[in-house]
Amino acid sequence: MQESGYIRKFFLGANTHKGFHSYYEYVVPGIPNRLFILKGGPGTGKSTFLRKIAKEFAEMGYDVELHHCSSDNDSLDGIRIVPFNIAVMDGTAPHTTDPKYPAVVDEIINLGEYWNKENIQKNREAIISCNKELKKLYASSYRFLSAAKEVQDDLEALVGDEYDWTGFSSTVSEYKSSILNSLEPIKKQGKSRHLFHSSINSAGRVDFIENALPKNNTCHYIKAQYHTASTRLLSSLISDLLMKGYDVEVFHQPLDPEIIETIIICELGLVITNDAKLENKAEKIIDLDSLRNKDISKDDNAYIENNYSLFNSLMDEAIVRIQSAKKLHDQLERYYIESMDFKRMSELRSKTLERIKNICL
């Protein structure tokens, strides 16, 4: 029996304190062998299209990536067939994508051709109303995320007060040496690929870190409540790894993409993370919390405790609005679903699958 391919899951976009943030340019590392861009509104079956192609290649034994929707875990925005560096992605808003290399790399597949436009027109006013309300809900959620980010910044200031930066430099230097000194330079330019393994979406605060790991991996855990310190360590390490020719996947915090949560060096199978979900899996722990000032005043401790409570409340309010937007989006999809010719869509998917197979095999 054919062994299934390895499947990794993560996000290429996120709801952040500044609105939607896209890393869809990193749908594949470098230039794709081929990129199919799906165009068409809600309810046109893009996610199903993606999922079935990914499933087919995984069952054939090929490794695949599933790129989940930043607002809805159950939907896909893209897939990558890893051995062939071929991707199929949703190219509609908010991650609008157009061909960079038309015909030779990129190709648009227009699913809107399979609509019954006259039926859709019957719901014109309802569709326009839904879209206006969706825009309002997301704008509101981003305001709450912006407020949460301000509280997170205040927490950073309180937690990092009188941080031992001399000890930090020593710890970072020692840790980096333990990794880099034994690595032979690779005669190529190292490249970074930017992603998210966590998301603020209709399911809450979601973390796919365990699904984002490479098949064979070694994990190092950075113990640090202070995001500034862990991000500095990871940023410094990324620069040195790239200089040595190693490719690095950089996973950012969805609330504030300036913060780095995890890096993965796939050529080494090495995962270095600040994500507590992997603490028990870690073969090495870098304790940056030990460099914090332990003599925090009672007042500062009270502020920190209050800030965590306030932060969680603001995040929860943002999520409530995203959940409301999800319900509205589901309603919007129904107007289109009832007007789609899914038989022709299925035929298109089969033809696309065969075309990809012809490219790959």
Tell me what the structure shows.
With 361 residues, the chain is α/β, with parallel strands linked by helices. It has two domains: 7-115 and 341-360, no CATH class; 163-291, no CATH class. The chain has eight helices and 16 strands. The chain is flat, with a radius of gyration of 22 Å. It starts with 6 loop residues before the first strand and ends with a helix. The model has no long low-confidence stretch (mean pLDDT 94).
Number of domains: 2
What is the structural class?
alpha/beta
Weakly predicted, low-confidence segments: none
E-strand count: 16
Q: Which strand order spans the largest sheet, edge to edge or round the barrel?
A: 1-5-6-7-4-8
Question: For the report, how would you describe the main beta sheet?
Answer: 6 strands, mixed
Beginning-to-end CA distance, first to last residue: 19 Å
Mean pLDDT across residues: 94
Gyration radius from CA atoms, angstroms: 22 Å
Overall shape: flat
Series of H and E elements: EEEEHEEEEHHHEEEHEHEEEEHH
What is the number of helical segments per DSSP (H or I, 4+ residues)? 8
Q: What portion of residues belong to β-strands?
A: 15-25%
Helix content: 40-55%
Give the secondary structure arrangement, pairings included.
Elements (H helix, E strand, L loop, with lengths): L6 E5 L1 E4 L2 E4 L11 E6 L6 H14 L4 E5 L7 E6 L4 E5 L15 E5 L6 H5 L2 H36 L5 H16 L11 E4 L2 E4 L2 E4 L1 H4 L5 E6 L3 H17 L4 E5 L7 E6 L4 E4 L10 E4 L10 H40 L4 H19 L1
Parallel strand pairs: 1-5, 4-7, 4-8, 9-13, 12-15, 12-16
Antiparallel strand pairs: 2-3, 5-6, 6-7, 10-11, 13-14, 14-15
Helix pairs in contact: 3-7, 4-6
